[in-house]
Amino acid sequence: MQQGPTTAPPGSEKHALPCQTPPGSLQDIVSESFVGTPGTVYSGCHAPPSGAPRLTLAVLVGMNAKAAYKLVETIAAHSSRMPVTLFLYGDFVETFPELVTEWAKTFTIGMREGQPFPLGHFTLQAQSWIRMGLVSTIQRLSEVDLQTAYYFPEHVTDAVKSEAKSRGLRIFQPTARFPPRDEKWLLSVANYYKYRDVERVPKALRVIANQLEDKGGIVSLDSDHPDSYMISVFLMDYLSEKSGYNLVSITECLK
């Protein structure tokens, strides 16, 4: 896998704070430096008093580095230069530190757990193990001089909220995600997978648009799903040219 530099928009800079303090003092620094409230779950953007609804785009970066690289590079090259947040596992940061450092020049960096788990199993663990996963990711980010307050858990539970709050982390869940998890929008052979690539693209975009319900919010793409890469350019074209949403950073989303 080629890991060439990501071309950053003019004037861009790292969108996560340099970590200049030991992990023990992380909570206070994070709480003071980021918008939002630690431990609070955000599933949409704050509505502006007037004007278009806000929307922010997020990528859930999995451990398939080749797939993630293709998707992120495609997003970086899009002419809209829309603000995007990348949520990373601690193990990904540890394995690809130079790539993460390069991405941080262009994108806001958020965090996931220390490593992926089979679906549903992360939140079955004891709270101490959930804590360990968060601490691991925070440490991995600090090793590449990054610090974040944005956390995208697999699922939200009381234990997850408690541990996130104690570490100054704001919790994010998407308004619309691809692939969707809500039973109403689940992809099946009959409604999606039996179709050719060219036919699946509009179906995927429609599923995302339907989840948003014209209200804007947080849209997430899972890099481990190959169709996230396939639809990414079409999605960004739609969002930037036709959707009518005000495309904002995750920070502006919370304001």
Uncertain runs: 1-13, 18-24
Evaluate the radius of gyration. Answer: 17 Å
CATH class: Alpha Beta
Give the overall average pLDDT: 89
Q: What is the number of domains?
A: 1
CATH superfamily: Glycoside hydrolase/deacetylase
Name the helix and strand elements from N-terminus to C-terminus, one letter apiece: HEEHEHHEHEHEEHHEHEH
**Annotation, overall tally of beta strands:** 9
> Share of helix among residues?
40-55%
Largest sheet: 6 strands, parallel
Number of helices: 10
Assigned CATH architecture: Alpha-Beta Barrel
Shape: globular
Structural class: alpha/beta
Give the terminus-to-terminus CA distance: 38 Å
Strand content: 5-15%
- Under CATH, the topology is which? TIM Barrel
Describe the structure.
- The chain has 255 residues and is α/β, with parallel strands linked by helices.
- The protein has one domain (23-254): Alpha-Beta Barrel (TIM Barrel).
- The chain is 40% helix and 13% strand.
- The protein has ten helices and nine strands.
- The protein has helices at 26-33, 65-77, 90-95, 97-103, 127-143, 158-166, 189-193, 197-212, 226-241, 250-254, and strands at residues 41-42, 54-60, 84-88, 108-111, 150-151, 170-172, 176-178, 217-222, 246-247.
- The strands form two sheets. Strands 2, 3, 4, 7, 8 and 9 form a six-stranded parallel beta sheet that branches.
- The N and C termini lie far apart (38 Å).
- It is found in: Secreted.
- Residues 1-22 are annotated as: Disordered.
Provide a compact summary of the structure:
With 255 residues, the chain is an alpha/beta fold. It contains 10 helices and 9 strands.
